[in-house]
């Protein structure tokens, strides 16, 4: 069953066609990775899905509902959640309070405390719970934000470069987190450059290039595709 | 009254309002547009320009030279303020508002202590002329021309000079500009001085038309704020058209119900515009373009 | 019952300084001192103390909107004035019998809240924030002062109440409690002192509960990162608007109490200088904490009063310098900085001896 459908989505910034007739179907329960050279329009696509940008034309369907005209917070309440590219934690608040703010619309009292403990363990942040989120390492901030994003128990989790700035070990741990979440039923759409991570988690991969869907398939198909290699090489030369 | 005099009267009112809005606002707009800083002491820079202009005219200088002195004096104070205060707050835009607000309080009360509650004014030059049954001040026409000249000069400064190009580069990609060897601190400093100088110029130009009191800055800032809020961050795409639109609102309301309602009209216009165009006219124009 | 107890638990939390028996013992001690104070003083001095308390409410409103919510508003002074004039207009027209002054107090606060709701709707739903919010609210405040200043003519009257331009409105009745055997009129001495003190304690505790509740969590989250807050499913515009309206109501309470205290109000109570003073108290105290804001307000206000002996211009210059230096050197506020420093020292000392 399709959970998210982008139908003929277009977004211009003046003459620049950053999203060009994008059609994308995300199946319920899959981990889907979005790759592509810089400037391919990956982050813009996320912003369109989240309602931070509005498309010039086209539709966004989520769980059999047209959400194209909805405000961001309303989309979140329908079961979307996101971790931003630059970690968006509440820097001046403690790690614990960050999680509390994410959880409080769903849980109260003792249940809330119990869920926070569980999340802290899941995120390996038990020792840091009283620290200000702004004082965490970059990798820890990423985890905290993933924790906040999954606190909402979303049906679809959007991850924008979840492993940026992480060591290979941390990247691997993040991959395992994502797989555990997926095993528990969460659909995941991730933008990622780290091919080791993509290989670790992705069931399907979509390549975005110049605002268009360039290729789609399993990770092995994508790696074997010479045209995909060519656009990355072209990027390297540019 | 025949149609021609009616039209002339309306145009005159419009030009007067336009000049006041643009001259009040452009210093604020340059600093906000280029640095993202709202200078709440803007009114006091205007006051400084007016006071220095009046003082030099009393000392025997002709008015244009006096205005020049007022402009330069404000610019110098601007350099000092940037160096001592603003420079340390670039990362904290809300704190710059608070700090410049404190500076405004110091300047107003300090002037009150040192100069007293009023200062002898300067007579309005050029006299007046008659159209139909009404007489009009020639100096108001001069002010309108001055407003246009300031807009033209700013356009030339930021598009055709080395300073202007470097300034815009610094604003858009500060790290890149710094990496290319541009002294970004100097650019910020000069931009702030330029904004302060423009405020001083506004003060100097209006010195002959108003009573000089330490709180005279407050007369200008409302108009300046409103123009910058409606215009947005770009002086040419924002301040100039905002000045035009607001001048119609203000002169229309003023001739209908008096000066106070002209100002209330401005305020209502701004509150409605922020709901519709949160980034101002220039934000709207830029979004359509890019 | 558990819900009620839950409220008490919210008296402490991450958003407010002070927790545990030591803090509440100190709180009780200060409160006891404040309650006993009129016994050791004369009516005139007590009346002047009320004047200090009156300003604390507007300071708290600014702490709420600016310190907790992250939106700098210069509109508090406008709401102060609207409610102050509102109370005057109502009571001059309808008198003080049958406890009407209290209804007038509520109605006047309601007026300020209503104006805030309208203005806030345009600003927050237009998604302007940051510096623009500051200048739009400042423009509103200045406009209101200019408007009131030109109402000197006899045509500016609402019922029996003349607005009186720059001279302001006066001779409105003070708060009056209807009582058997004649109403109790609260002039600016001991009676009013206890009433305002009670309001202050109530507002302080209520705000502590509010800020440590889930609502307060969202408010500080919006200050820290509005985009993230929205992406957790919160309609941040609504939260900002509600905070703005609560703040306006508090500023309005300040305005009514000011009017009640001196039985007059003038346009200059909403001018530039009037708008700058609360900002200074709150900035110097520590805007992001209620307790620090109250202490800062009372300390700076007393300092200001002491300085005006040498001339109010000098005092204002000093206030300006204080504000600029605070922003440059202790951006979180002097009182708050001092409290955090001391608690850290104490904690370290405890650790060393343990």
Automatic annotation (TrEMBL), chain B:
<comment type="similarity">
    <text>Belongs to the binding-protein-dependent transport system permease family. LivHM subfamily.</text>
</comment>
<keyword id="KW-0813">Transport</keyword>
<keyword id="KW-0812">Transmembrane</keyword>
<keyword id="KW-1133">Transmembrane helix</keyword>
<dbReference type="InterPro" id="IPR052157">
    <property type="entry name" value="BCAA_transport_permease"/>
</dbReference>
<keyword id="KW-0472">Membrane</keyword>
<dbReference type="Pfam" id="PF02653">
    <property type="entry name" value="BPD_transp_2"/>
</dbReference>
<protein>
    <submittedName>
        <fullName>Branched-chain amino acid ABC transporter permease</fullName>
    </submittedName>
</protein>
<feature type="transmembrane region" description="Helical">
    <location>
        <begin position="97"/>
        <end position="117"/>
    </location>
</feature>
<dbReference type="InterPro" id="IPR001851">
    <property type="entry name" value="ABC_transp_permease"/>
</dbReference>
<feature type="transmembrane region" description="Helical">
    <location>
        <begin position="61"/>
        <end position="85"/>
    </location>
</feature>
<keyword id="KW-0029">Amino-acid transport</keyword>
<feature type="transmembrane region" description="Helical">
    <location>
        <begin position="186"/>
        <end position="208"/>
    </location>
</feature>
<keyword id="KW-1003">Cell membrane</keyword>
<feature type="transmembrane region" description="Helical">
    <location>
        <begin position="220"/>
        <end position="248"/>
    </location>
</feature>
<feature type="transmembrane region" description="Helical">
    <location>
        <begin position="137"/>
        <end position="158"/>
    </location>
</feature>
<feature type="transmembrane region" description="Helical">
    <location>
        <begin position="260"/>
        <end position="277"/>
    </location>
</feature>
<feature type="transmembrane region" description="Helical">
    <location>
        <begin position="18"/>
        <end position="41"/>
    </location>
</feature>
From TrEMBL, chain C:
<keyword id="KW-1133">Transmembrane helix</keyword>
<feature type="transmembrane region" description="Helical">
    <location>
        <begin position="290"/>
        <end position="310"/>
    </location>
</feature>
<feature type="transmembrane region" description="Helical">
    <location>
        <begin position="184"/>
        <end position="207"/>
    </location>
</feature>
<feature type="transmembrane region" description="Helical">
    <location>
        <begin position="52"/>
        <end position="70"/>
    </location>
</feature>
<dbReference type="Pfam" id="PF02653">
    <property type="entry name" value="BPD_transp_2"/>
</dbReference>
<feature type="transmembrane region" description="Helical">
    <location>
        <begin position="316"/>
        <end position="342"/>
    </location>
</feature>
<feature type="transmembrane region" description="Helical">
    <location>
        <begin position="21"/>
        <end position="40"/>
    </location>
</feature>
<feature type="transmembrane region" description="Helical">
    <location>
        <begin position="264"/>
        <end position="283"/>
    </location>
</feature>
<dbReference type="InterPro" id="IPR001851">
    <property type="entry name" value="ABC_transp_permease"/>
</dbReference>
<keyword id="KW-0812">Transmembrane</keyword>
<feature type="transmembrane region" description="Helical">
    <location>
        <begin position="77"/>
        <end position="96"/>
    </location>
</feature>
<keyword id="KW-1003">Cell membrane</keyword>
<protein>
    <submittedName>
        <fullName>ABC transporter permease</fullName>
    </submittedName>
</protein>
<feature type="transmembrane region" description="Helical">
    <location>
        <begin position="102"/>
        <end position="124"/>
    </location>
</feature>
<feature type="transmembrane region" description="Helical">
    <location>
        <begin position="241"/>
        <end position="258"/>
    </location>
</feature>
<keyword id="KW-0472">Membrane</keyword>
<feature type="transmembrane region" description="Helical">
    <location>
        <begin position="131"/>
        <end position="149"/>
    </location>
</feature>
<dbReference type="InterPro" id="IPR043428">
    <property type="entry name" value="LivM-like"/>
</dbReference>
């Amino acid at each position: 069953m399709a959970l998210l459908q982008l139908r003929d989505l277009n977004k211009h910034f003046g003459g620049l066609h950053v999203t060009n007739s994008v059609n994308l179907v995300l199946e319920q329960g899959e981990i889907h990775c979005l790759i592509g050279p810089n400037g391919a329009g990956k982050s813009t696509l996320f912003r369109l899905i989240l309602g931070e940008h509005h498309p010039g034309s086209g539709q966004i369907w989520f769980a059999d509902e047209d959400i194209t005209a909805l405000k961001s917070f309303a989309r979140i309440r329908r079961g979307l959640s996101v971790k931003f590219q630059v970690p968006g934690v509440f820097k001046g608040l403690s790690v614990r309070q960050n999680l509390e703010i994410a959880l409080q619309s769903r849980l109260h009292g003792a249940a809330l405390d119990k869920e926070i403990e569980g999340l802290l363990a899941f995120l390996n942040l038990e020792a840091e719970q009283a620290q200000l989120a702004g004082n965490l390492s970059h990798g820890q901030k990423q985890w905290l934000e993933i924790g906040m994003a999954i606190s909402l128990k979303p049906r679809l989790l959007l991850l924008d470069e979840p492993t940026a700035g992480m060591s290979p070990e941390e990247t691997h741990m993040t991959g395992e987190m994502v797989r555990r979440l997926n095993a528990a039923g969460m659909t995941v759409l991730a933008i990622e450059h780290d091919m080791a991570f993509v290989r670790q988690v992705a069931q399907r991969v979509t390549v975005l290039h110049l605002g268009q869907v360039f290729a789609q398939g399993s990770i092995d198909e994508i790696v074997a595709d010479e045209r995909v290699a060519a656009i990355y090489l072209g990027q390297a030369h540019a | 009254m025949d149609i021609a005099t009616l039209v002339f009267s309306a145009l005159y009112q419009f030009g007067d309002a336009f000049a006041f809005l643009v001259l009040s606002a452009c210093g604020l707009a340059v600093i906000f547009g280029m640095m993202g800083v709202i200078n709440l002491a803007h009114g006091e820079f205007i006051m400084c320009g007016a006071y220095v202009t009046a003082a030099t005219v009393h000392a025997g200088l002709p008015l244009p030279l006096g205005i020049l002195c007022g402009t330069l004096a404000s610019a110098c104070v601007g350099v000092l303020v940037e160096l001592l205060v603003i420079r340390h707050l670039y990362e904290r835009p809300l704190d710059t508002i608070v700090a410049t607000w404190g500076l405004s309080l110091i300047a107003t009360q300090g002037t009150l202590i040192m100069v007293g509650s009023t200062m002898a004014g300067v007579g309005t030059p050029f006299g007046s002329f008659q159209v139909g049954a009404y007489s009009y001040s020639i100096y108001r026409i001069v002010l309108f021309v001055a407003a246009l000249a300031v807009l033209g000069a700013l356009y030339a400064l930021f598009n055709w000079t080395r300073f202007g190009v470097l300034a815009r580069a610094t604003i858009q990609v500060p790290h890149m500009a710094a990496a290319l060897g541009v002294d970004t601190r100097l650019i910020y400093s000069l931009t702030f001085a330029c904004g302060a100088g423009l405020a001083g110029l506004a003060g100097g130009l209006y010195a002959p038309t108003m009573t000089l009191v330490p709180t005279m800055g407050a007369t200008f800032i409302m108009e300046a704020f409103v123009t910058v809020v409606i215009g947005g961050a770009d002086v040419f795409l924002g301040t100039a058209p905002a000045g035009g639109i607001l001048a119609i609102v203000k002169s229309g309301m003023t001739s209908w119900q008096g000066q106070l309602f002209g100002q209330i009209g401005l305020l209502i216009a701004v509150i409605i515009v922020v709901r519709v165009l949160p980034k101002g006219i220039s934000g709207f124009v830029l979004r359509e373009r890019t | 019952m558990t819900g009620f107890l839950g409220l008490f638990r919210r008296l402490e939390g991450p958003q407010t300084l002070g927790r545990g028996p030591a803090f509440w013992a100190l709180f009780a001690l200060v409160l006891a001192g404040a309650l006993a104070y009129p016994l050791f003083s004369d009516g005139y001095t007590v009346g002047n103390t009320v004047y200090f308390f009156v300003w604390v409410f507007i300071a708290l409103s600014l702490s709420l909107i600016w310190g907790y919510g992250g939106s700098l508003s210069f509109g508090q002074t406008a709401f102060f004035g609207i409610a102050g004039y509102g109370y005057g207009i109502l009571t001059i027209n309808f008198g003080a019998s049958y406890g009407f002054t209290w209804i007038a107090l509520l109605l006047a606060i309601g007026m300020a809240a209503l104006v805030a709701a309208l203005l806030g709707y345009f600003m927050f739903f237009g998604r302007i924030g940051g510096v623009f919010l500051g200048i739009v609210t400042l423009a509103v405040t200045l406009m209101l002062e200019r408007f009131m200043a030109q109402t000197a003519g006899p045509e500016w009257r609402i019922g029996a109440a003349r607005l009186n331009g720059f001279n302001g409105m006066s001779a409105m009745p003070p708060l009056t409690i209807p009582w058997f055997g004649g109403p109790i009129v609260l002039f600016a001495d001991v009676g009013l002192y206890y009433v305002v003190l009670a309001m202050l304690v109530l507002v302080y505790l209520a705000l502590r509960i509010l800020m440590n509740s889930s609502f307060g969590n969202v408010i500080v989250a919006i200050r820290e990162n509005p985009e993230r807050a929205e992406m957790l499913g919160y309609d941040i515009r609504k939260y900002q608007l509600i905070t703005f309206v609560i703040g306006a109501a508090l500023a309005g309470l300040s305005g009514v109490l000011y009017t009640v205290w001196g039985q007059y109000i003038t346009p200059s109570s909403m001018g530039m200088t009037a708008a700058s003073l609360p900002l200074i108290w709150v900035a110097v105290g520590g805007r992001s904490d209620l307790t620090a804001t109250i202490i800062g307000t009372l300390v700076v206000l007393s300092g200001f009063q002491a300085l005006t002996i040498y001339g109010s211009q000098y005092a204002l210059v000093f206030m300006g310098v204080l504000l600029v230096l605070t922003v440059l050197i202790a951006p979180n506020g002097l009182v708050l900085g001092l409290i955090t420093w001391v608690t850290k020292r104490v904690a370290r000392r405890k650790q060393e001896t343990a």
